[in-house]
Amino acid sequence: MRDLPPPLLPLIRSNAVGELLARLYLHPEKEYSTTDLARRTGISQPTVSREADRFAAAGLTRERRHGNLRLIRANTDTIVAKPLTDLLAVTFGPAAVLPPLLQPVPGIEEAYIYGSWAARHANQPGPLPRDVDVLVVGAADEDELYGAARAAEHVLGREVNISRISPVSWNADQSDPFVTSLRSKPLHPLIQNRSTP
After folding, report:
1. What Gene3D superfamilies does UniProt report for this protein, alphabetically (predicted)?
2. Which of 12, 79, 152, 156 stands 20 to 30 A from 95 (CA)?
3. Does the global pTM surpass 0.70?
């Protein structure tokens, strides 16, 4: 059974393709092994390898070998690099841009994208999201979260709203309507099960 094109960007064959290209083009200074791409995106290693072959054949990526590692990076010299990067930023960008901005912030135990972006990523139809809603579970400093949100907005070209909730509230019984509502709808994980140092 063939997957339907993702609602975030129907021009792209699948969410996997969008996520991989976003990871590569929104971090063009980095090289990734296929194993690292699989780990960072949650996409299977065989799928990453197959898509990497397609990207290379189309001239979208550059590759080099280092021992047994196949290292891949965005080909920023291609004529489509700038428009493709811009398109990826406003569609699949949140999943590629937010984790590296949130990882260094102490006090984050879990983080998720919720709302319309998560719904489109979960293939629920609807209009393209105007903003990105992020839930942070933990005791992270609000100023640091604000800084991460503003840095993400600069790349993504849209508003990023970060809400913070305590681990007790997130893991409590289902009496909180906000938590109940969030858990009943799509959540896209950014950071999971990281204990606070």
Report:
1. Winged helix-like DNA-binding domain superfamily/Winged helix DNA-binding domain (1.10.10.10)
2. 79
3. yes
